[in-house]
Amino acid sequence: MTQTNAMPFTLVLFGATGDLARRRLVPSLYALWCDGALPADWQLVGVSRSARSSDEWRAELAEILEDTPAEDFLAHLSYLTADATDVAALNKLPDTLGSQRCIFYLATRADLYAGITRALGDAGLVSEQSRIVLEKPIGLDYASAAGIEAGVRERFQERQIFRIDHYLGKETVQNLLVLRFANSLFENQWNHRFIDHIQITIAESGSVAGRGVFYEEVGALRDMVQNHLLQLLCMTAMEPPYALDADAVRDEKVKVLRALRPMDTTTIAEQVVRGQYTGGVNGESGYAEDAGVRESTTETFVAMRVAIDNWRWAGVPFYLRTGKRLPARTCEIAVHFRPVPHSIFPQQRASMANRLVFRLQPDEGIQLAFSEKRPGAAMDIRMSELSLNPQTLRRERVPDAYERLLADVIHDNQTLFVRHDELMAAWYWVDPILKEWRESGARPEPYRAGTWGPSAATMLLARDGRLWDEREIDDAPDG
Ligand code: BG6
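Above: inputs. Below: predicted complex with 6-O-phosphono-beta-D-glucopyranose.
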């Protein structure tokens, strides 16, 4: 991660007073600076419509950064009060920007992206050296995403556009690449002959409080499934790329997205569960109250059974689920292998099949569950776990995903960013589900805050004779 040979840059952060900038982006930049990973010459210019001076912005950030930030770090920061779609306002940015290596980071509503890009171009601030970073979700459906993309691509070429999906910056996701493609052990098993099914869970214990306006419009399908969950699915299911370069990796991910079996009215009803949390048993607030609305059909939970129609994955279901106000904050990819074809041990059950779990949070690590003999005279079998936990093994700090991704933008490496065709393929697959929900007028199924979602999510697997990995997840400490 230490990359002091980075070229000088100016980062212009739109949406500088927003939640993401304060919680993730500035702290990650600070961590990079502390690690000596930034060049001597860099600037961060925060831009937002909320009026404040550079001194006031610096003081606000100084308060939220964990350690007292050195004055030297804050000296690189300045602030501009401006409507980012207004060319005249952008002209107040230092006019040296056009000739510098400038990274425009758009942490605003996505419907402003095309307008901001146009204004940047008209203000003469975009050059060959410029880069633009776009936060997800880009659009609310296929058509709006296509419109935003067309606007951005008028002024920036694909090699200049960094579409962030911060799950790709998580340590375990990259470790998944290494584990799969730097070890010969797994590749032979990584297909329908040996794998029974795969579960991918992103569970959050937190509510939507504080982000109600954004969330009410977006919902879990657009916020988590269209991007984070599908990206994790791609990393798990893709073919080996021919090289670790941006296009080779992204070519393989696009193939997975294109092989997703399309959903129609019947399969959506049978294979997609949509939920919304209500108040909990201990008086916890429900979604409408948290979002500040009277009533709502926005989903805070999605579970689905997904099929990938290719040779490797024929007949292997991928179960995806995500939700707010679940019992724990956890994220894992659990690969369930098939049981042995014929067991010579009478007490061995199908549930004792091998399972390889990539846990992304709260404690990043990898676990392999396997059967072994219980010590003693009897031939008793039990499940044991081999655990690879980078934090406890090496006692290293695991960097936040945004640190890794910001460093990649600074170093102009697009491998962990989403390409245009990938983004559109993901929307293309998700679109019929959005349409069906909109047109059917069906409401999400309620689930109590603090539970694992509506009972229909349990039924989704039960119908296939399977269970979600809840017992193990329940044991995970909340992060
Ligand atoms: C964001 C979503 O992309 O990811 C949030 O908009 C969600 O709703 C967040 O809470 C989860 O990220 P992480 O890294 O905390 O798991």
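Residues 473-479 have pLDDT under 50 and may be disordered.
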